[in-house]
Amino acid sequence: MAEDKTILVTGGCGFIGSNFIHYILGKYRNYRIINLDKLTYCGNLDNLCEVAHHPHYTFIKGDIADREKVREILQKEKVDVIVNFAAESHVDRSIEAPDLFLRTNVLGTQVLLEGAREMEVPLFIQISTDEVYGSLGSSGLFTESTPLKPNSPYAASKAAADLLVRAYIETFGLSAIITRCSNNYGPYQFPEKLIPLMISNALEDRELPIYGDGLNVRDWIYVEDHCRALDLVLHRGKSGEVYNIGGDSERTNLQVVKTILEILGKPESLIRFVKDRPGHDRRYAMDFSKLQAELGWRPEVRFEDGIRRTINWYIDHRDWWQRIKTGEYMEYYERMYGNR
Ligand code: NAD
Ligand code: DAU
Question: CA 246 → CA 31, 53, 88, 183, distances in Å?
């Protein structure tokens, strides 16, 4: 049996963080999770209502950029690992208002790193993204040694955070690992991102806005595969390393949207081509051979299966996304898509 561990998860009320918490509590009976989340517009306590009273789960509302709060938690709890999911994560919002992205993604990460250094936390895992590498042409894959060339304020803030992690490893000898994953999809994803937006709009017979020519390519990974990779990295990853995580599932946005419409039995006439995203990265695709060779991981869920599971989840959890698609969300939607 695995030894006890206390994991400080940040951003656990978001999409990937909540899937990770469910995964870890389901797999390791003696692990404790402390979830530090600011509950921004996309942080949702509903994502974790099933474990809210779990004896090994504690929720703390707070900001990763709040030094005192982070210090207080690390002084009180003997944390074995920090897994930093907390971030502003939506590219379009980073184009609208970059400031918050710098505060949370850069300064917030530095505050956590400083806390980890001061309190000698044995391991820090930074959840990063393939977007730090920039954009690919029609061939080739991102490897861990591809130069960082971020194109959006979001990607730049994540790249800056990665560089800070590296600096804390080199300067202070902090034990830390960076993981960079491609586009996730699955349950609990906030409906501003492509897949849940298209599924929920199609279920409501609304238009499906596709940016540009719809031929941008993403490498889709089912969120559970990402969690499985993080589990391996957490237990067997080597400090100081970067690990790419990918889905081996490249699709154009148009292919993704047409697949969703086909499964739902909805007409392609719902598709509306809209003005492109500024600086829109053309293609992402990950070489995850390092993780495969060193830790024996590869994605297990085929896109065709994952997308069906995801669609079924959104059909079965209509209340979850309909509660979100009100108020602030509708204002955002109008700003983003109203005159596009
Ligand atoms: P998300 O937007 O769904 O969730 C982010 C969570 O962080 C929310 O619960 C939010 O309340 C919380 N948060 C934001 N600012 C905070 C702050 N200052 N202090 C504490 N909590 C704060 O994001 P996600 O899609 O689950 O992404 C999680 C992480 O994974 C991010 O770091 C993102 O960059 C990275 N990532 C995401 C993808 C993807 O496809 N979604 C792929 C690769 C990497
Ligand atoms: O690659 C990993 C990244 O994936 C993560 O780091 C980010 O946090 C995550 O948001 C995601 O970024 P993308 O910009 O790739 O995801 P998004 O779902 O916003 O868009 C996916 C593609 O779909 C992209 O080419 C833009 C396009 N798109 C998106 C939306 C929201 C549309 O065509 N229409 C839309 O309405």
Answer: 27, 33, 21, 8
Tell me which residue has tokens 């609208």. 96
pLDDT in tens, 130-154: 999 999 999 999 999 999 999 999 9
Instruction: Give catalytic residue positions.
Output: 130-131, 154
Residue 68 CA, ligand 2 centroid: distance in Å? 34
Residue with tokens 């919002």: 93
CATH architecture of 6-184+221-245: 3-Layer(aba) Sandwich (3.40)
As a whole number of angstroms, the distance between CA 86 and CA 109 comes to 9
Q: How many CB atoms lie within 10 A of CB 201?
A: 21
**Residues paired with 10 in a beta bridge:** 36, 84
Ligand found nearest the CA of 64: 1
| Whether residue 127 has its Cβ less than 6 Å from ligand 1 | yes
pTM: 0.98
Does residue 161 contact residue 105 with C-beta atoms inside 8 Å?
Answer: yes
